[in-house]
Amino acid sequence: MSYQALHQYLQKRSESALIEQDPYEIHETWETCEISKMSPDGAPSPAWKASDKYWRIICYPKGYKSTTHLSILLYSPKLQEEHKVKFTIQTVGGIKTRKESSEYTFSKTVPNRGFFEFIPLKDLDLYTVNGKLKFDVHIIFSPPKSNRVNYRKLTGYIGLENQGCTCYMNSMLQCLFHTGAFRKIVFGLPTTGNEDSKNIPLALQRLFTLMQKSPIAPSTKALTDAFGWSSMEVFMQHDVQEFLRVLIDNIETKMKKTDNPDAIARVFRGKTNSYVKCLDIDYSSDRVEDFYDISLVVQNKKNLLESLDDFITDDYLVGKNQYQLEDKSFHDAFKGCRFKELPPVLHIHLQRFAYDMMSGMMKKVRERFEFPFELDMEPYLSENSNDANECTKYELFSVLVHQGEQYGGHYFAYCRPTTERKWVMFNDDQVSIVPESQAMDDNFGGYNKHHSAYFLAYIRKTDIDSIMHDVTEDEIPNHLLDYFDEWKSKHSGMPPSINLRLVTDKTYTDAIKRYGKVPSNPDTNENIKSPGDIRFTDFLSNIKRTCNVDNSKDVTLWTIDKSGYPKQFIKCESQVKQIFPTSSRMFVSDVLIDNSSPEQFVPLIVTYYDPTNAETPLQYIKFAPLKQTETLLPLKEEIRKILNIPETENILTFYSENSLSATFVSINNITLSLSEQSIKSGMIIFQKENIPNVHINEVTKTNEDEIPQLRVIDLLPDQMIKTVDKFFEFNNSAISYSFAELDNSVKNNNSKDNANKDSSKDAHKVAFRIALDENSPIKLLQRSVRSALNVSESDSILLFKKNDKDQPSERPIDFSLSSSIKQIITVPFLFYKVIPNVKQSELENRKSFRICVVDENLDVIEYPMFLMSSSFQVDDVFGKIKQSKIVPYDKPLRMLQLQGSRIVKMMEQEDQLSGLIDFSFRAEVIPEDQLDAEPEKLVRVTLTNNKIMPRNGCVGTPFYIKIEEGEAFKDTKERLVKMAKVSLSSASFAYSNECTVLKNFKQLNDDDVLSDILKGRNTMLYVFVPGASHQAVNSHAFNWNSGVRIYN
Q: Which architecture characterizes domain 151-260+473-492 according to CATH?
């Protein structure tokens, strides 16, 4: 059998898989109209629904295949499969009753069955009441027993069909699907359901919808078709890691144009710090790179920790492999890599395949390789890691397993779908609950086993709740729920139920108020499902009830075009499937038209634009179906009366045929007919010609939970838009920027209530939002915020971007630049700080300078940010510190320039700082014993956890210590450990007179005298603290969460 034939067979098998049906029972009564007035062609009862089946009876007063008896038939809309039921039909209420029962298998070819000779026509009056018949109908369905295992009922989860060799893909998809944060991102991708079959995001959304709701294992064919794979390619086994990278890259690319472009990165992206350091000269280079997964060596490693140790072990470049600098000189060096930033979800690829030098081929590494349930990544962080104060402990959530050899085999997955330690095995379409030992211990591998772990997924403990947050049906877009209904109907042997989302005047009112326009898919909660082959008139009462319309009132039904506008009148006698082949939206209106000639009417939405109404500048007025021969003049005058617009005010008229293009036509002569002006369905907008200059100048709230939604066009008079066409242009291009108060944000981040919450969602309380065009100058952003906060001319504001840690950036935005907003800001979230008594023009000539201030014991007093003049030096900063009463005037200060956890130098009071504002500095109260010390008697002390190359493992807080003349080191180290705040029993010590050379250091003994052996300006003391980390040893890195304050 060819690849193509086998693929078609497997696909046909998958598509023919039917959902096991639930039993049901229908018991209904139906009273006919008067028999004498009944059509001889038959009168149908209302449709009765049970499960996903619809039934009705049809009464033939003159007989069906009989001329002597009234006939009664049970009928179901076209079935796709055989469906066997028991049914009983009985008359009630007459002098005589008639009851018949039967059992029959209905099908697509025979959709009705009943009793041709039910009541003799000559005796009909004996069964009627007032000339009408009343039937009692009882239908019972008991599904046949199935040999198919219902894994959804058994385990709560479902698997995926294997197309041939797609087990590797199925395993990774299960891992990603059961990562709640990723599933939520997928459902949030900007799709409408109308994209073509090559759209990967839509195909993945639909697959995830089936994985969440389907009772049977769905096929992945639509996804592989979107990938562009041929039937042969689904029989080619690919690599799990390669598939993951391609899929993540594609989704991330699609997210770039949304308002959440970094969603994937915030879940999976980490950063490594790759470095090269020369051994004989003071040269080093660093490079920070993103990663979404890491690949670790398995061969000759006992466990995951050994592999991670190997990952960060430095490689020495000596001999023929010396490192070459840009000046062409060669030097002995070492290079390495450590983690600068860890992701919430850590994906680890295990290199189970390696090149065999003997055979010249790839082979599978079958050695036993253990991995822990809880993993601590702290030992693998770089010195300047962004995660120095973050949790570094992870829990295992997924294990992907490879069974077989290097050139073939089978993949399956073990996942924890919830935060509990409950493991589920997903082996293509088979699913089972398993003990943790099977998910972990059984997959460590070994020479006696054919299966072993190939890919691991860990989640940071502090992120587990947010990453594994359950995704509810409410978070699934409506078009995907419609898709599932159609898919379920197809796999239930029934024609698809068509889901009609009912749009009303209220829908348009709410949508225009929320979006400032008619969206292409108006949000509506009024839904009704219908089989395709019944008429609208059959369930018109249900439509009215759903839309809260009195059943005695008439309504008109209209299709809705892609723009969201009413398009075509629907005759109630039409079958649903004739108008709507698939699920769609339908407009229900109480505005009636002449049904005999509906094609003469043009359906129009009528709105009014008032830019002085900041809350709802565009208002929905009414639905107006006008004849093609009519003009807009009567409608214009009606609007004038409704809105009390004086006769002296001129009213402008605009027409929009397509809300998606935001193209507007100005109607200058409204005395012409609609046909003469080529006006078809769409929207008519009226507005006053003369608009006064008004604007909102501050943030106002109606309640505490409401977040004000503002627009630059309302905040600034010179930005006001006075015509609706320009308003729509703005609406289509504007981006909503969120603003949080800096002090509020810091307070929220420090609160215990937010300690375990997702910072991107909970930590920053949004004060207001402003919609601006991202192509506007950055200065406009500043002006808008000033207006929103009603900042006086004597005060100013600072704005800070959100960094990749979801915290305020260390430096404020420079508004002196001539850049656009989008060139400066990539994430539409900012923090603001009002600076009193400093004009904005004065502030723009200042430079922000951040510094850590500590006392004599190296305890942090404060992290101030000072607004300095364009040129300033050290003693200017000291003046600010004392003026701000951070440190008393009588306390002497000194300033240190830092690099990570190492002191670069002590600054002189006259040193200029204006060109060094991007470096780290610490101001400290000088300890009393060092006040009069000579400079050569003060030595730098660095804490380190690396005994081979101390400079490569600096941690904690560096400091100066005074060297006492003739003091034995056994006495000196007592002072050292006290200042370092470490245990004497666990610490050891060394020194270097040339600390720029990495390996040039010597161990210190108790009888050494530092005043005799320490020489030169590059002297350094090292305190070795085994296992010390950035968390274990206090570090004074700049941190907003520690309460940074800004001083003028």
A: Alpha-Beta Complex (3.90)
